Amino acid sequence: MSTGAPITVVILTLNEERHIQSCIRSARTLSPHILVFDSYSTDRTVELARAEGAEVMQRSFDTYPGQRNAALRAVSTPWVFFLDADERIPSDLAAEVREAIHRTDRVGWWVPRRNIIVGKWIRGGGWYPDYQLRLLRVDKARYDPQREVHEVVLLDGEAGHLSHALIHYNYDTWAEFRAKQQRYASYEVRVLRQQGVTTRPYTPYTMPVREFWRRFVQLRGYQDGLHGLRLALYMAQYTHRVYRALRDEEKEP
Length: 253
Description:
CATH class of the largest domain: Alpha Beta
Helix content: 25-40%
Number of domains: 2
């Protein structure tokens, strides 16, 4: 890959033909170097990405940290910005990133994110500013292989916080939201087991109540009206599913 610019935008993909062109076009406001790191999509993702002028590399998916670490090894610029296909980089964020990468006292930057859920920007409930560690010095960053979901970056140095936000077109429908939470549940159970978390008979019932209170009241999910209420209820339901599954696994020989 050419090193004519100090930063590469990496987009991980699997069957993202609906988003990939708009994503690449927004990424180009930051850098001409765009790498689509694809998990052998079966739709037109690769074709459309190449048509937009992006470089495409393919690797069979194992875990999210595995994909991101492999992408880091493929980047030859000093900095990388990880972007999901359903995210967009506004021009004000691109300008801020270009300034940030010239600072020598930071090796990573947290980026705030605006989550658009079922057509609404969600401000409460922990959904904003939703900081993501996406801007990284390539030689100072790696992903923890033990965290399969909600990846953790291991940095050799300090990280700062940017002020302008990514736009994340997170879920188009409530059915999509619930389906994704169901997929995450099994990963979350594994993480809790690795952390040594155990349950009591009442845990699958008390933890969802705590999660609803945290999301809707403490994190002010109520300011998003019915959207906020629905999200808090769904996250409580997700928490119940996770701790019930953890309890059931503890009962197994």
